PHTF1/2 N-terminal domain-containing protein (Bambusicola thoracicus), 339 residues
Amino acid sequence: NHLLWLQNTSPESAKVSALIWEGNDCKKVDMSVLEISGIIMSRVNAYQQGVGYQMLGNVITIGLAFLPFLYRLFHTDNMEQLCSISLKELLHIFCGAPASIPVIVLSTINFLERLCLTWMFFFMMCVAERTYKQRFLFAKLFSHITSARKARKYEIPHFRLKKVENIKIWLSLRSYLKRRGPQRSVDVVVSSIFLLALSIAFICCAQVLKGHKTFLNAAYNWEFLIWEAALLLFLLRLASLGSETNKKYSNISILLTEQINLYLKMEKKPNKKEQLSLVNNVLKLSTKLLKELDTPFRLYGLTMNPLIYNITRVVILSAVSGVISDLLGFNIRVSITPL
């Protein structure tokens, strides 16, 4: 949205002469920003996304729902006679108390609440992962527009940045695609995941400092570890997709390649040197502008606030250094430089 001012006309009226392939046939069509973005969106929507993280979330959800029962089951006195355990004893282990109708009903409700709430949380994380994947696909197809070979491979329009109007269309298309899909809601979900992972990491560090030999003797510590591992897996995936998306949108090599093509064209057509020099100057300014707008991938909310970021960093690093010092037997000081 920082680049819409570069286009004097609306996205509907400004058009660029682009090449588009229909099988082995190639034709030149005048297309607007909305028409090009519509083709890119249709290609992204036709992409079959994997269900690996959704299945992972379902497995972790079932595991967390059955965790109290499994913990009590594997800590029973008659572990050797586990195969011959009776139904009454199994209900006693499931409820954590002598089996009766009220206790069984209450334990069943508790189990269903854990299952549903955990599934809803992991479902939101899967939605965030799918949205980040769509953003990455938008950025990937956008970066292929100026390459004829890749544009033909992915069946998207192709045009070169050899005119000022083409550069304006390219920048407007970049801005338009970056704002597609849910933005703030998904970023808030990712920020909540990040905050929850930091909170659980701090609690685990405090529990280890309290007694690392008895850390795994409590069921809630096992649950904290499972939650932390699952959240870190999703955060690594989201951070990877976010950083790759930023790299695709901030790929300066595309503009540098177009500048080289312009220099080569100046040698072949000296009579158009003045016009091509103007386009080259606009490309240079566009390169500087993208460098100014280029920022590393950040989780929304927390890292945008320097005070909260520094406080969180101090607390987490202090807890981690305390855990390492307690496990290794000697003190480790972590240098923390505020931003």
Remarks:
- The first strand starts at residue 15 and ends at 22.
- The chain has two domains: 14-245, 305-338.
